[in-house]
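User: Protein folding is very new to me. Would you mind checking the protein record under this note? It all follows right here:
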Amino acid sequence: MNNRQFVIIYGNMIRIEGRYSIMSKRKNKRKASVFFRLLSLIFSFVLIIFTIILIGQIIRLNVLPLFYVIPISIIIGSLSLLFIILMLFKAQRGFLHFVLTLVIIALTCVYGTGNYFVYVTSKAFKSVTNLTSKVSNTLTVRTLEGRAQSEKDLDGACLGYFTSMDSSDLSKLTDSLSKDNVSFTAKAYDDIYDMVQDLYDGYIDGILFNESYSGVVTAVEEYSMFVNRTTPVYSMTYYTENQNQKQDSINDVDVTSVPFTVMISGNDSYGQFNENSRSDMNMLVTVNPNTGTVLMTSIPRDYYVPIAGLTNGYDDAELEDKLTHSGLYGIETTQKTIENLLDVDINYYIRVNFSSLINLVDAIGGIDVYVEEGLAVDAFYADTTLGGVSEGWNHLDGKRALAFSRERHAYQYGDNQRVKNQQIVLEAIIHSLTKPSMILNYPKFISALSGAFETNMPADTISNLLKFEFGTFPDWKFESYALSGFGDSRLCASLGGYADVVLPDEESVIVAKEKINLVEIGNTSNDIE
């Protein structure tokens, strides 16, 4: 083979290889094009599914007025159809097809996120209206720290018990100990503080105790370290049916046109709502949707009042106690006690606790409260590490908001100022919820809302109230009033002994009744001082 033939053959080989390379590139390009078109078709299909689900969820959520739902649904559906039609029929390939595919992918992600938020919102509404099915009751045997290691050390011990303790609770606890071959001598106490003091002094070896009373004991300064100084060496938990489960309010009304009153009861506990505990905060919120007036009426936790349904067993006379102790007998007892006090029909209740407030305030990015001159606090009594509040505006996170709403030791008028602080916190939360920044905090807020409180307001009523808010955006006018009283020491039925209480100022009770009535008939509560 001469050089000329070699060059010709080599040139032909290069041309063949070049043609093969071009054909290979074209083939790969066609494969990529097919893959991209397949990807666009898949996302188009997913987008159609997400669109249908999103529109369905918005309709089923039922919190937006119809004149919002219709255009929103049309916009959501039209955007999906527009981009899908353009991609499939007007731009089947090329750069425009690529851009439209990216738009469809982005829209799919947006609708997917929207579906998630609507779903968790619906789930949150269900959680707050699904009342706890069972009430947890924890019974313990407490001894001083280090006195006993297990129930076996209780054999032959002298154990005190509080006579106001439910007889069935006492029987359950003693029977359970007997099954473990623990025998003991029981000593009865009519005064719970006498029992705790005898435990401290060593006159008894331990106490048979219902843990719902731990807050009652620690509320007294000399026993504030009760939980730390004692150890539950034996414990049992049983559950009772919640009588309020799935029972909507019997006083349900059309909240978009009829004035209504909501009781907010704040438990002095953390975590779930499956335990009865003291009602640390008691506030009535009376709303007139026709005038846009919202009246907050606060009642001191230590108000000395007849507790609904609590009698001595000999007659029908109701025994007097601190209002806060009504929570030990259930939310319905607190509601009925306040209804009797103020001669008002409470339409709904909302039950919250310490965890609720902390989580909600943190979820909305904190709240701003205004502290008037002379009401600054150097350090909160509940937790001195949190600091306090100064005169003027203060930004509070969840823990500081809770400490501020519970503070009473720093004020001359203690409990009376505390209820005013609680009103300030509630109003600040409502104002924060209406800020544009709530859009950014919405995911955190919904997460905190789930399990943050429970209410007997029916789900349909909540939906109607939200539709009313979004449909009319009423200019709510907030008014407030706090009942007052005088400090004294009185016999408390739940304690079996004397404790510091607040005797109601009958004049302030009358004023509260009149203010609530004024708001209900369409006037302002400020018409009376």
